[in-house]
Amino acid sequence: MATQPSGLHMKTPPPRRKRRAALWLMLTLSISLVAGTVLLSNDMRHLRTLAALSGYDLNLQVQQPEPPPLQLVEVAKPAPQLPVKIPPRLIEVPQPELAGNFLRTWRKSGPDMCETLRKAGIEMTQWRASAMGSSAYECSFQEVYKEDGERPLSSVFLIIRGDRKGAISNIRAKIVGPATDSAGRLDPSFMRVFETVLAQSHWLDFHDALSAIRELKDVRKEGFGASVVFSREFSSENSFNFIMTIKAAPGPQMRTRAFFSTGRWMPAPDNEVSEALSPIFR
């Protein structure tokens, strides 16, 4: 009878069993790798969803880098404010001669206009209160060349009306039986009245009306708040009227006229008042 050798003896697994174990190990690793990729993808939303279904509060916070330290920036100090002085010329009443550059106005006062006409050879009276007893002031000129009793057959009449301060309201003229040349043009002695008046008004856009007046034709010109009219009378074929006036125009011209109105401005302060107002505007 044969005897068995003494001592322990380990049994080795057969080759088929070893291959099966290796296959299961590789399969398990592959499944784990795929599952981890799916759970960690899409900003770990799948992992948060699985944790929420399992009852776990998975609060993953991404550590943000610390912001750089703030750098102190020096702010420039404002320059010291100097005291403001108010020159008196800034609040002086606008000069009337400048108004003519912005709106239709008489460049001269009534007394000055009368004096200029006298220097031109038209003997105007002095600027005085109207004989009608109203508050109007006026100066006038009249010369009769021919008359039949109390009725003038040939004459010229000119009157300038305004107020006590000399502001002109209108200029009127009337000629009766004027002398003309062979071509029917107005005699220079009559024409001198209209030429002087239009020249002193400085309304250049109305100067072409002189051509119609010289030929004794009706003319009416209006523009920028003023009008010039020369027309033959209906009742007399040999009498002509002339009216030159400024009308109250709407819009910008009215606002400009209000700006140059002396009644809307205070007198300019002296230097002491200007110095007293300076601290207010510091």
Structural summary, described in words:
- There is one protein chain.
- This protein is of the alpha+beta class and 282 residues long.
- The protein contains seven helices and seven strands; from the N terminus they run H-H-H-E-E-E-E-H-H-E-E-E-H-H.
- The chain has a seven-stranded antiparallel β-sheet.
- The longest helix has 40 residues, at 15-54.
- The chain is rod-shaped, with a radius of gyration of 54 Å.
- The model has no long low-confidence stretch (mean pLDDT 76).
- Strand count: 7
Oligomer: single chain
* Principal-axis shape: rod-shaped
- Characterize the biggest β-sheet: 7 strands, antiparallel
Give the termini distance in whole angstroms.
134 Å
Q: What is the string of SSEs from the N terminus onward?
A: HHHEEEEHHEEEHH
Strand order of the largest sheet: 1-2-3-4-7-6-5
Structural class: alpha+beta
Brief rundown of the structure:
This protein has 282 residues and is an alpha+beta fold.
